[in-house]
Amino acid sequence: MAEGEKQKGKAKRPKADALVTWKMEWFPVQVPQNKQYTDRLVSIVEKRVRRTPVIYALYNHGRLVNVGQSDQGIARMKNQINSNKKRMWFDRFAIYTLAKRRQLNDVEALMNRIMWPQKAGKNFMRARNLADPVRGDVRRWASAESRKITRTLRPLERKLNRSANQLDRKEKRIRKSYLKRIEKAKDKNRQRHLRSERDKRLKVLNTARKRLQPWRNAIVQWNAKLKTFQNLKV
Question: What share of residues in the chain are helix, strand, coil (percent, to 5)?
């Protein structure tokens, strides 16, 4: 056999600073028509792994069903495999050996939290909680954005209200003035002329009101944006 072929068959040694030293992924637990396969597989893996700290994952039809750990090689996974012979709740497995035993709990907790975030499960041993400072930063940012929007929104609201009130007062004066003039006018033609004149002036006011509509739309949008920041919960 050539020297290159010999080297190709050898397993590479893991680096000294590696988290995972060995891996075996997506391995079948059972082989059809061979009852001895499972026991022999467990025996071979057990000799290879020995008492190395292990993280294992169990799959059923491509779906992860369990993640576990053992500081005594595959002892716990061996029990899972023996129980699996009766009811076949997983068909493949993966094994990852770790360099240090103290990493077991953290790695298992990390895998469980990523796969099943709704379940609390185990906590990390020495990890500090990043969520609280991040929440604080997000709330401060939301508060700053709310103040910026408020500084833009409030003057716009005041300007719109002032313009709308002016138009309302002007309409009230016009209606009151023309009402008196129409009542005093005895000629029907004169009354019709005054009503027509009043309606023209009111139409001008309604046109002015329509020009305020873009302001109202902008205020509605700014208020909706402001509410998203005020109600932001993380």
Answer: 60, 15, 25
Q: Please give the Cα distance from 108 to 227 (Å, whole number).
A: 40
**Which has the closest alpha carbon to 141: 77, 232, 72?**
232
Please, which residues bridge with residue 133 across strands?
Answer: none
pLDDT at 46: 86
Mean pLDDT confidence for 172-180: 91
- Residue 127's closest CA among 100, 101, 99, 107? 107
Verify that 114 and 22 share a domain, yes or no.
yes
Amino acid identity, residue 149?
Answer: I
Determine the Cα–Cα distance for residues 108 and 122; give it in Å rounded to an integer: 8
pTM, two decimals, is 0.52
* pLDDT greater than 70 at residue 4: no
CB distance 76 to 70 below 8 Å: yes
Q: Which helix H or strand E contains 223, and what residues bound it?
A: helix 213-230
Coil vs helix vs strand at 211: helix
The per-residue pLDDT for range 151-169, each reduced to its tens digit, is 989 999 999 999 999 999 9
Write down which residue in 75, 109, 127 finishes a domain.
127
**pLDDT of res. 123:** 63
End position of a domain, from candidates 110, 127, 144: 127
Q: Can you give the residue range of the structural domain that contains 41?
A: 3-127
Task: Report percent pLDDT > 70 for the chain.
Answer: 87
- Which residues lie across from 24 on neighbouring strands? 95
Question: What's the number of domains the chain is made of?
Answer: 2
